[in-house]
Amino acid sequence: MRLIITCVIAAVLSACTFGVPIDRDPAIGSSAKLPSLKKSKLGNPTSYVVFGKRYYVLDNAQGFAQRGVASWYGQKFHGRKTSSGEIYNMHAMTAAHKTLPLPSYVRVKNLKNGRSVVVKVNDRGPFVGNRIIDLSYAAATRLGVTGPGTAQVEISVVSSGSQKARRPVVRTIPLTENAAIDVPLFIQMGSFGSVVNAENLLRELHDANEKAAAVSQLKTNNGLFYRVRVGPLFDIDEANAVIRRLNNKGFSTARIVVQE
Q1: Is residue 218 part of a domain?
Q2: Are residues 45 and 101 in the same domain?
Q3: DSSP state, 169?
Q4: Residue 175 to residues 25, 50, 73, 240: CA-CA distances in angstroms?
Q5: Taking 70 as the threshold, does the pLDDT of residue 17 lie above it?
Q6: What is the total count of domains within the chain?
Q7: Structure pTM?
Q8: Which of 160, 193, 210 corresponds to the end of one domain?
Q9: 194 and 124 in one domain?
Q10: CATH number of the domain to which 56 belongs
Q11: What is the arrangement of strands in the sheet containing 185-192, beginning at the earlier edge strand?
Q12: What is the pLDDT of residues 229-250, one digit of tens each?
């Protein structure tokens, strides 16, 4: 009997030392012991373009939450490099998102069945319709998404890389006939009758690493105005996250506007 107990204890210790049982993987449904994250050198440009639409990568994802459609990707991409440079493993708990810093840990909840898991976002996508996240096969299986193919989910950031990384050159993918046509959103920081005032604010934004800020002109019956804006953006959740980031940097005048 003592020999059996000794063998069992040895087996348990062996599992703890050389591998984590899949049900105890910290990236599955638990955020208690997630490792610290550092932004990857790849996959975190200030912005990038896919199918003619520009996406702005968030510098800070703290407090980010979003609801929408989740999909999944599997065997076709298994073994390929992700946007962060990691190799995609369909059996790992990972996901792709368009604007979150890479990597980030995100809790994903299936709003239909109530299941939730924590996944590591290490890739970019999905760029189809209104989908907000692409789950690995393993994550989609846990959430019950593999059968129907898609599901309404809620995502919330648990932890994300906060240290600065070198921004690579923005990549551009040519416009195709299947590109979605959306109404762009902007974060307007101010509107001035003087171009000098507009340029001063623009300089402050650039100094705060808001490189997507720019000045545009607007002719009205009351004269010419110079607007300082950040964008365009194509997702209201992303726009709200950018406003929170700007507010944290001391820019309290930020507001969402729609392109005329």
Answers
A1: yes
A2: yes
A3: P
A4: 40, 7, 23, 27
A5: no
A6: 2
A7: 0.58
A8: 160
A9: no
A10: 2.40.40.10
A11: 213-220, 223-233, 185-192, 255-258
A12: 988 877 777 788 888 888 888 8
Paired tokens of 41: 């050198």
Q: Is residue 221 part of a domain?
A: yes
Domain assignment of residue 105, yes or no: yes
- Domain assignment present for residue 251? The answer is yes
**DSSP states of 76-142:** GGTTSB-TTSPBP-TTSSEEE-SSSPSSEEEEEEETTT--EEEEEEEE----STTEEEEEEHHHHHH
| Interatomic CA distance for residues 64 and 156, integer angstroms | 6
The one-letter code for the residue type at 192 is: F
| Tokens (6 digits) for 150 | 């898609």
What mean pLDDT do residues 128-140 have? 93
SS3 string, 179-196, reads: CCCCCCEEEEEEEECCHH
> In which residue are the tokens 């990384």 written?
165
Mean local confidence (pLDDT), 206-215: 88
Q: Give the tokens for residue 44.
A: 């975190």
The count of other CB atoms within 10 Å of the CB of residue 120 is 25
Sign, CA torsion 84/90/91/97: positive
